[in-house]
Amino acid sequence: MKKKLLNIFLFILLAITAGLAIYMIVEGSKMEKPMAATSANLLWSYILIALAIVSALFCAVWGMLKNPTGIKGSLISLAIIVVVIVASYLIAAGRTIEIPDLATGGFFPHNETVIADSSILVTYVALCGAVVAALFSEIYKAFK
Question: Which member of 19, 76, 82, 125 has the greatest number of CB atoms within 10 A?
Answer without folding.
Answer: 125
